[in-house]
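Continuing from the previous page of notes. For each protein in this section, the sequence appears first, followed by its structure tokens. Read the first protein now.
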Amino acid sequence: MSIRRNLTRQPRRRRRLGTSLPSATLVTVALLLPSAAVAWSSSTTMPPARTFSSAVAPRSMSSTAADTDAVDETYYSPGLASTTTTMPTRPSSNPGGTATAAAPRITMTRWLSAKVQDYPELRDMESLHLSIQMACKTISNLIQSSSTATTASRGDAVDNSAGSLRDDSMKRLDQISKNVLQNALRFTGRLRVVEAPRNTGNEDEEGPRTHQPGVTIAYALDQFGSDGDGTRQKGEGVGGEDGNAWGTTRRLAACFDPLDGSGNADAAICTGTVFGVFDADAGFRGGETPDLRDASSLSRAVLQPGSKLLAAGYCLYSSTTMLVFSLGGGTHGFTLDKSINEFVLTHPNMRIPSRGNIYSCNEAYAEGWDGGFKGYLRTLKTGRGATGQRYTQRYIGSMVGDVHRTLMYGGIFCCPSDSEVHPKGSLQLVYKSAPMAYIIEHAGGKASDGNVDLLDVRPNYVHERSPCFMGSPEDMDELVAHLGGDRR
């Protein structure tokens, strides 16, 4: 009996060993991948997607190595050419330049690494983006488990009204998301992270006074080109469309909305994280430096018009998790691949259609809208506009989701001011509408506050609101003509 038991147990040990070996090998190879140019396989066909399971049959070391090569070629190679594929050469335009169609499955980490090789001035931006994607992965998991956790806790709620449950869930998710994002930013060791101050004297700030959305400001503690490592110094420039902006950057400051649309999470409606990155020194004049212990002083680093943004992006948490951002020369989308827990380039050089057939706005506030805007909507509904086609309305109530759909399908997204509830508009300029407008404009769209380009509006404080219109260029021209604003 003793021999029989040993014989039955032995295969189990072999099965566990066979399961663990491939995983360990994959991790080692991923960590040792070089950042310099590497020649990849000449295969012209994309290898089949791998599936990861804990119930994997024992495999030899030779099959494990073959699988590792397949994963490397699929997710870490910048592209697959007909003969030999190498790292992309320096683009001729700018740091955020067009991504080629030959690189459909490169990871975001690898994409940023290639950019830094060509543009050393993006080194701090790479560090910032890596911390952002780490936080977004965690927030995505929190959002997916939010509904289950909330449902389980409702039996213990003292106030069972629908409004109270929604507010409690929103506050809880906002707080958790803020903590996750701030911890990820602090993990870099190079950022001073504070929560944006509130100006209690301004009555147009967001929401109930008892709830603060946790808007976060990150200020770089060191500056590019100050460590004598031979990298490009301030003022040398890099050329290209936005080269001068990057070449004169000394220190970065970023503003974040950790979780836009958090009140919709329990209904499984999409939410998102929004961020914008500025040259921090441009927010201070005459060589002035901020007090790193004072949040109000640090917040001045982001009180700049959207035209001064160096980068902006959002992470959409929906049926998939998608991180979309721009470094100033194009808009690119990365989708979270759950099998390897990495953002993979799926939408290089995104372009908004020149015209769509969807308008997005909250018509519950229509009674207080300007007559010109209501007249524009009437032409869309009746088919009397420039296209002669009736538009359809789509409104989620989550800004990131509505703007993302507009970016993908075209059309127009509107949050106008109204005389009844939101005389200055309903969206905050610094950490909501300006970063989204930056992404839309670098994807070929337009944005306006109804009078001037939205990116030209300078905020006076962090939570300041502004009317917001953005979308397809031809739709925006038609709208601004009805409003009587600047059609640039």
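Done with the first. The second protein uses the same format. Note its length before scrolling.
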Amino acid sequence: SLALGGSIASVAVVAGPSTLLPLFLCTAVFAMEALSVVVQVGYYKATKDNSGKGKRLLRMAPLHHHFELGGWSEVKIVKVAYILNAAFSLLAIIAARYV
């Protein structure tokens, strides 16, 4: 998946700046998953006390594990991810048309 993301990013850079926003919108769900890990680790390190324990923003990172621990089934998480991805893809099509 890292190679696929790298190839999509290189296509966006070669095609010009007008493709960056639509491609980012298409990958928004994956970006949220990755950013949830970065934010969780950063917040944990920033709130460490003298005993070495910090606070957490999420129950567990990445984001889908947070929802699993909140009681959501895996099927529900996948359905919501598909719906969000479809919505972001529609926004990407609209952005590509008007940007």
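What the second structure shows: The chain has a mean pLDDT of 90. The radius of gyration is 17 Å. We return to this in next week's lecture.
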